[in-house]
Amino acid sequence: VMWEPMGDGKKLMSLADNNILLWDLQESSAKAVLSSSAVLEGKGQLKFTSGRWSPHHNCTQIATANDTTVRGWDTRSMRQIYCIENAHGQLVRDLDFNPNKQYYLASCGDDCKVKFWDTRNVTEPVKTLEEHSHWVWNVRYNHSHDQLILTGSSDSRVILSNMVSISSEPFGHMVDDDELSDQEEQHQEEKIKEPLQDSVIATYEEHEDSVYAVEWSSADPWLFASLSYDGRLVINRVPRALKYHILL
C-alpha cells in the first residue's frame, strides 16, 4: 500500500497480485472508494513484488516491479508509460524515486545490483552499483541530499553510497563569485567542468543476518535505520566529515 506522496492524504494505491488499485478517501474517512484500477497482463501467474509512487508530475506516476521488469504507469489513465524489461538479471526487490530529479528512479534486486534509470530513456541504466554480494532488498534516496543512497542486502551489510554525479548537485554547491580571488576562481572553473566522483562512503556490518529494510529518518536527514532478519534494529549517522563536506 502506498499513500500519495505529496497530496492531502486522500489517495492511496495498493498492489495485489497482478492488480493496481487506486483508492479515494474523499467520500468518507472511514471507507476507501475504488476510483480506478489496472491489471498486469501476460503469460503465467504475474505478481507485483514492489511499487513506488513518484513525488513528481503532480503525483500522476507510479513505478512497479514484477519479476525482472520495472514498469511506469500514469495514474490518470492507468496505462503503462514505460517498461524496462530485464531491468535486473533476477527478481527486482525494491524501487525508489529521486526526490529532487523528476525522471530518476533507482531499482535493486536479486542479481546483487543497484541500478539508476532515467525514465525518459530506459534502454540502459545511467549508473550501476555492484557493491553487494547477495540479494539487495532495499534502496533509499536521502530526502534532502539526493546523492546519498542507502542499500540493504542479504549479505548482512548496509552500504551508504555517494552517487553525486547523478544527483541534483553533480558539481557540488555553487559558490558566489564575489567570495573568490582570481586564482580560486580559475580553480573553481576547473572543478565545475568535472562532475564529482561517485563512491561508497561506508559499509556497516553490525547485522549478522539478512538486512530486509533500510530507511532514512523523516526528521533528521543524517540519521538512518536498518532492520535484519534476526530482529536487530540498528540506527546510524552519516559520517560527520561527509556531512560537513556536503553542507560546506
UniProtKB/TrEMBL annotation:
Alphabetical GO biological process terms: protein ubiquitination
Keywords, ordered alphabetically: Repeat, WD repeat
Database matches in InterPro entries: Beta-prop_EIPR1-like, EIPR1, WD40/YVTN_repeat-like_dom_sf, WD40_repeat_CS, WD40_repeat_dom_sf, WD40_rpt
UniProt keyword Repeat, yes or no: yes
Membrane-spanning residues: none
Gene3D superfamilies: YVTN repeat-like/Quinoprotein amine dehydrogenase
Domain EIPR1-like beta-propeller: 1-160
Keyword Repeat in annotation: yes
Coiled coil location: none
WD repeat spans: 85-121
Family: Belongs to the WD repeat EIPR1 family.
Name by which UniProt lists this protein: EIPR1 protein
Biological classification of the source: Eukaryota, Metazoa, Chordata, Craniata, Vertebrata
Gene of this entry: Eipr1
